[in-house]
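Thread title: Can someone regenerate the structure for this chain?

I was given the following input by a collaborator and told the matching structure tokens would be attached. They weren't. Posting the sequence so someone can regenerate them.
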Amino acid sequence: MFAKLPQTLTAPFGLLTDEAKLAFRSRPQGISKLYTTRRIAETDSYWDQYFTLFDTPSDVFSLISTHDIRRALLDSPENVATLIRVVTSRLFNLVSDHTFPCAPPTSVASYATSFMKSSSTERNATKEVLNSLRVLQRVLPVVFEVEGESNAFELEVLWKKVEVDDEIVPTVPDQAPQFVIEDDDDGSENGHDSNTQSQTPRTKRTKMLPSLGEKLFTCVNDLLFCCGFSLPTKIQVDHYKINYVIWEKGVGSTTDSGPNHAYDSNKTEVLRLLLVLLSRQIYIPPAALFTHPSFYTLHVVRKTPRRDVLTLLCSLLNTVINSATTNNITIASVAGKVPYNHLLFKGDDSRTALVGMCLQVLCVLLDFQSGPARDIVSDSGDATSSSPTAQTNAFRYFLAKLHRTQDFTFILSGIIAILEQQLAISNNLLPGSRKSVPYVPETIILFWKIIELNKKFRAYLLDSDKAVDILAYLLCYSLEIKDKPQQHGLCRALSYIIQTLSAESAFGNKLSSPINIQIPTKWVSQGASHGTAGDFIITSVYSIIATTSGSLNSIYPALIIALANAAPYFKNLSVVASNRLLQLFTSFSNPLFLLSDESHPRLLFLMLEVFNSVVFHHLSDNPNLLYAIITAQKTFEELGTFTLTRGLREIQRVQQIKEEQASQAERDRKDGPQQERESVESAHQEKLRLLKNESDPAFTIALDIESASFSGEDLEAGLGGHEQTETRPLTSPPSESSPTTSTRTTTAVSEKARGKMKARRSLSSDTINGDRMAAAGVGRNGFLPTQEWVTSWQQGLPLDTVMLVISELLPKIQNLQAGRQKANSAGAITDFLQSVTLTDVLPPAPLLYPRRFVWSDASIVWLTSLIWGGVYVHGMSPLGIWNSTSVRLFFVKHTQPQQRQITDTMSSVVGGLFSPTRQRPDRSSNQ
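Best answer:
Regenerated them for you:
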């Protein structure tokens, strides 16, 4: 009797189902039958276990591997087709069945009761629907990867339409267009319709049944709006359980049914299947993205009824926007605020998972522009623009049509709330105590899509007082992720967003406004307060460029273009911001940087445009920048006479000094007596001091260059190592501030100090074995700078305006400094520069032509890859939806995860609390 007790308990209570799940992997009637037995009939009882065995998504993804599906496709492809047909057929029947959906459990006791009845004879329609969705999520990615974009199996199973005979009914003129697309109105108007009816009253007609893929999309839409499954039963009308109403209040709706854990979880399951269907795109190579569009995404954006598009779009959007402003108190929301809670409890709650899934689906749908879904290009005057239509991409079209002010306020407030929440986590007193908001990247992409598509929203944003705040949030997030290589794609997206905003005149008018948000102190430059938005954008761009060692050089143009677009509106720039601009300029004018890549002179050109725009539009409003420009006179003069030979000589001079320093350091290390070592160090420090006093910033910048091949280290050295000398106020006397005087004096002393060096360090042209050989070592990626190339860009540099300002103001400033005490010279110079006017000297100010971000085929493919790359990474844990499949849209690089010990966690926490800088450990942010 007791020997049979476990079996009797297992059947009615269903508490020991692990045995059946393990048997599914091992017994012949389990998953192995799918690829070992040919042509399993659709009516075979073997398929029933796919609907009743699994309890969670993890069960499906762990018990059915990609290897199983791939082997079945090779050995028994008809079984995979049968599995898809059986699962979808059961899904369609269940959705229309009166037993679906089952009432969700409302208490712990009812949940336990439903769990114990899971393996009894009572049918659980909701569980079968969920398992149908999960099996399709597991099988379809493996089907998609087969044969790339020309998958005959996929087309046969999911997209084949069957022509059948229509019901034989008397011909009725009003019903004729239901199945006949041809236009026969002319015949009817000529009086032939009645004769035709009398001759053939029972015409045999045919119709095309929708394909399995089309029916699956219809079923997915119905499940997203099914009362009792994804919506509350209280909104059900009569016996119609499918009710297309917007999920939450916000855009298009003023009612809110409130959150429900079961409904949120079910929505996530359905949206995951929708995302899997849309993921057909990642198995198409980038070169074929426009010519071979995904049938699935095309159907959603072009064939979905207007009502369904609007309801789904508003539901997804409202769920995202309400995520950061919800006032509902749940166990998950309270537990999520406990410090270091994410280190103990892995995974997201149902609400967070739903919001993330909504954002991913939104970004994918709003980004899609392949094949016939491409925006329509129109010519408007001198410029061309593109815009979506209801026939190309209905989701992009209806998002662009939003126009109500309350909708804009709702969307903007929600996006700012999410970004504010992330910034608060980054600025937390306890480093790493709270988990980062997992869907911030998708929120930023959604914001980009809204300002790109909806011009009215963009105008509303720039006219509101929140424009400066959202700029600060975007810049802060860029500073937070700039040192994480896996986030560099998002950094690039942020640079394009900032460039897009900077092209608007309303944005420029906001740059004089103060920053109101609390910026973390680690991102505020030394000696500078938050200042204005103009100051912060300059110092942020400087930090991004200066501290990344050239790893983000692909975003330099967009950031510098943003500065050039905003420069005509700069007013009252601080000392720090002004010197940051000059540091960027001197770094870009460094010969090693200029000659290393063909595109680098463009950055120098843009920086000169920044200075020119300030001079033309707000000359007297920026005395600090004017003074910084005047003190950099030598750099501007050398650019006017720059040649390839001079640049190569400077590069070689820097390299020789670098070698001498390395040799001196090696000798210091080998020297035995301490006194001798200290003597050598003092001489070495004296030499460095003399070199540092030179007014040639490019020389100092290049001290840290390791080789002739440019790797970005010259930017880091030149931008990050001289803050104290570059951020001084206007207090220098004539003998120290005059570029001409100081340069001549210091250079003479430096040459005298270097006279004791070996003769091989002479800078004569004899030491350079030809410019061509030297240039070959400077250019990277096969680029070879030539004098003709140097002349082509050097003659086009807009230096005239800056040189004119220097020639006019430098003598006057020198006279002021010569006639005053050192303590009073700064105030006098500032007053003078604030009152100066050069309207009679300068040419007329040119018209403003901001450089807008223009979409190209390459940029569209890049953003699509970025979005799907994020979706892929999110899907890796915990399910691994697309793992081990042949993704073609982007390259997947797998790295071995580092083991994290408890002692590491504690040391990170304690070290973060008591370290002077209190920097948050990089690896803690990834937990």
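The radius of gyration is 34 Å.
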